[in-house]
Amino acid sequence: MIDTISNHIFNPISGEWGKDIDDADKNKRYVLRTTNFTNIGKLKLDDIAERYIEPKVFDKKRLEYGDIIIEKSGGSDTIPVGRVVYFNIKDNNYTCNNFTSIIRCKDSLNSKYLFYSLYFNHKKGITSYYQNKTTGIRNLQLKRYIDTTILIPPLQQQEKIVKVLDLTSNLIEKQKELLEKYDLFLKSKFIEMFGDPIKNPMEWETEKLGKLADWKGGGTPSRKKPEYFDGDIPWITTISLGKIYINEEDAVEFITNEAVNNSATKIIPKNSIIIGTRVGVGKVSINKSELCTNQDIMSMTNISTNLSNIFLYFFINYYNDFLKSQQRGATIQGITGPVLKDLDTILPPIELQNKFASIVEKCETIKEKENQKLKQLEDLHNSLMQKAFKGEIV
Asked: How far is the C-alpha of 382 from the C-alpha of 380, rounded, in Å?
């Protein structure tokens, strides 16, 4: 049957932030925030807030196994508010903060089924129709949203759908874990071959990073000239950075030669090192094709022949935490060019760097195949969700 969500859930429970606590406070509670959300509906538990909440208040807002936590405030220009995560922790000492609400199902609705339904709605962008924006923050009109209708088959059918979607979801998670293991292997291999580049226990020669390449900044062509953004030159922001290699497929927009000539952006030759200095500080990539960047990026071009760009990619990644600690700024924080250029850069023999680069290339070839498998699994999962909520899985 088709019915409104609100007929099958209890009244949503608003989250609670509580107060700061003393480290010795025995009444501390774990408060989940939207920073604990992932875009795949799973909780990220590596940074949980510990707060004091009055016992009477907490008892009314305590999370139970199988609850759904929905984001009421947040979102971005590209991702609407309304993300959901499934609470699958058997611990009665959790709640969520005031930017979220708890959705708890009645007996007529399998909570995991509703979670997948709400997750699919958000993925399709449906929650964007139930958000308003005040002072830059997007707020979900939760009452309106839960008064929308969804397909609610018999419980037995809901459970069957959940089993199918759980299966593909778990396969996706395992595939991502496999890919993460390749990344961890390469990081450990870097340390094995070169040592900690900050402490330099192998006593390699060093040089300031600024002296090892030419440096180019970026810029944004005038938005008052929309024709500037109707070209064929890839233009990126820090959103594009992070993976080892990027190319024109990672472009945010495509600009014209006139845009380049009339702005601070520059054409960056391929095989340069591209580094985020604001809104993504320390993110780094190697470009496999010519492109332009915005003002939040600095690029290393004409890199010294004593350096492999793959070695440099891992070297700068190692400094990521340090670079983030150097951020300054009242509203948008970032680092300056001198901070980057002042990094002491170890200079192992180029033969050793190239040996490491060869290992990386082999891993990247394997990862490319594994990423194709991941995409196939994600496509299958999305297809099954679409069929499930159209009533095509029986």
From this structure: 5
